[in-house]
Amino acid sequence: MPRIISTLLPPLRDRIEPGVRVLFVGINPGVRSALTGHHFAGFSNRFWKLLYASKLVPEPISYVDDDRLPEWGYGITNIVPRPTPGVGTLEAKEFAAGRARLRAKIRRHKPAIVALVGVTVYRAMFPERRGAVALGLQQERLSGAAVFVLPNPSGRNANYSYAEMRRAFTALRRFAATAPSARHR
After folding, report:
1. Adjacent-strand bridge partners of 40
2. Full-model pTM
3. Is pLDDT larger for residue 88 or for residue 31?
4. To 10 degrees, the CA torsion angle through 168, 39, 48, 133?
5. Using CA atoms, how far apart are residues 146 and 131, in angstroms rounded to an integer?
6. What is the pLDDT, as a whole number, of residue 31?
7. Residue 142: what are its φ and ψ, rounded to 5°?
């Protein structure tokens, strides 16, 4: 049934433009995101509030403003393009294809930082990595870009408090302010 639902939903468009400095990467679009045509559109998703609370953006924005991310040097995409109500129906072959697509996007757009939004996203990109995953800067790189893990901001994520999420997003802002641009790598 989820496969039928996802074939009826429109694809969610990436928001990536030349000069992207930080590329935010989700696992895959949720149903509400697909229906609205905007990233992180779930009612309980705190992604947009965290961008403002951490001062990554200078004003409050919401999912309808995702087209504005390039104004601040940000882009947004997903590993798997297929919308689903949850990640449980995603298949290994979708992750493998998504890893290849994401690496190609990173090579093409050359962000300085790839911000993986959720430990699940990190595990999808680095399936060989075992053990605990800490938030923040990782030792792995993706096509030359630094890899930074953020907590999943979904309201369904009970692993991190809002304060912990805000600290992680603030750490990304601080790192981005000091990271060399992609042009100097």
Report:
1. none
2. 0.91
3. 31
4. -10
5. 20
6. 85
7. -120, 110
Range 172-178 average pLDDT = 96
Question: Regarding the domain with residue range 2-179, which homologous superfamily does it belong to in the CATH classification?
Answer: Uracil-DNA glycosylase-like domain (3.40.470.10)
Q: Tokens 């924005």 — which residue?
A: 61
Pick the closest to residue 72 from 113, 118, 119 (CA basis). Answer: 113
- How do residues 60-102 score in pLDDT, each as one tens digit? 999 999 999 999 999 999 999 888 877 777 878 988 899 999 9
Q: Which two tokens stand for residue 108?
A: 């093409």
Q: What is the pLDDT of residue 90?
A: 83
Structure tokens that stand for 60 in this block:
């409050």
Could you give the CA distance from residue 146 to residue 183 in angstroms, rounded to a whole number? Answer: 13
Residues 6+ apart with CB under 8 A from 26: 39, 40, 76, 77, 78, 79, 117, 118, 121
What residue spans of the chain are helical by DSSP H? 2-8, 31-36, 47-53, 92-109, 119-125, 162-178
3-state helix, strand, coil in the chain (%, to 5): 40, 15, 40
Q: Residue 139 is inside which H or E element, if any?
A: strand 136-142
Location of structure tokens 């998504």: 98
DSSP state at residue 41? -
CA dihedral over 67, 74, 15, 20, signed as positive or negative: positive
Predicted local confidence at residue 185, as pLDDT: 44
Both tokens of residue 61? 């924005």
